[in-house]
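go over both lines:
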Amino acid sequence: MQGRYKRQLLMNITQGLPQNDILRRIPDVALLWRLSIVREVVLSGFQLELYSGEEKTFAYWYAVQIIDEHLKCLDNMMSSVADGLHRCRSMWSVSHLNNAFRRF
């Protein structure tokens, strides 16, 4: 419950930012961190042989669900990063940089 509250708080803080702003992905960073911890806990259960035969099926299913959410979150972040890079490149084109250096 506490982790959900923190993510919701981060979502409220970043709500006023433009839709394509990279800072709007801060809640996703918190979610990625949490998902990676849960993934490591589930997978370490296999390494330590903590699961019985009946529990392994559920643990595999749960690990797949966690990894799937992790990948979705990374995809969302990558699209924002790509959009940001595209905007930066268009804003700072070579001709713009050449004009800036001419002043010196």
Q: What stands out?
A: Residues 13 and 71 are 24 Å apart (CA to CA).
